[in-house]
Amino acid sequence: MSNKLQAKDLINLGLFTVLYFVIGCCVAIPIGFVPIFLPILGALWSLITGIPFMLFLTRVKKFGMVTIMGILSGLLMGLTGMGFWGVPMGVIFGLLGDLILKSGGYKSAKKSLIGYAVFSLWMVGTYIPMYFMVEDSWASFAASFGEEYADRVMAVMPMWSIILVIAGIFIFAILGGLLGKALLKKHFAKAGIV
């Protein structure tokens, strides 16, 4: 088996990235407009997207597929107006996820959970402006949704909460991965992931 990505791999990658992103948006769009939910949005995203990601892992047998998914997810998030910090985070955490999956020979259920949880940290990129570019973020929110909304967003995003955001994404990704594995048990067995 060739280690190079083939057309079939890229088609799977594209389809699963779209599925992953659309399912994530099904959570993000309805609750993203409520400021108090913004700190937990990444955690909820990683919980619900565990299902398509675990199905994606039954098709991943080559290094680089998770990294590319991370980059594409960051690009899609940027195109939806959340900034492009998800791209470098997608590179970093996608690559780390790929390395974890490869270390398990793409067959370890335990490493698939850890790999998914690490990969999911690309979502931290969407929070970077709110924590490190506060004035620009406030101005962007105010221009789009009004000053009252911008004030409420910044009130629920104090600097110390970044720790909770990161921990929430990681923990809920583990839960999402377990949910995905439970729902897709037959696919995992067929793919030889144990």
UniProtKB/TrEMBL annotation:
<keyword id="KW-0812">Transmembrane</keyword>
<keyword id="KW-1133">Transmembrane helix</keyword>
<dbReference type="Pfam" id="PF09605">
    <property type="entry name" value="Trep_Strep"/>
</dbReference>
<feature type="transmembrane region" description="Helical">
    <location>
        <begin position="37"/>
        <end position="56"/>
    </location>
</feature>
<dbReference type="InterPro" id="IPR011733">
    <property type="entry name" value="CHP02185_IM"/>
</dbReference>
<protein>
    <recommendedName>
        <fullName>TIGR02185 family protein</fullName>
    </recommendedName>
</protein>
<feature type="transmembrane region" description="Helical">
    <location>
        <begin position="12"/>
        <end position="31"/>
    </location>
</feature>
<feature type="transmembrane region" description="Helical">
    <location>
        <begin position="113"/>
        <end position="134"/>
    </location>
</feature>
<keyword id="KW-0472">Membrane</keyword>
<feature type="transmembrane region" description="Helical">
    <location>
        <begin position="154"/>
        <end position="180"/>
    </location>
</feature>
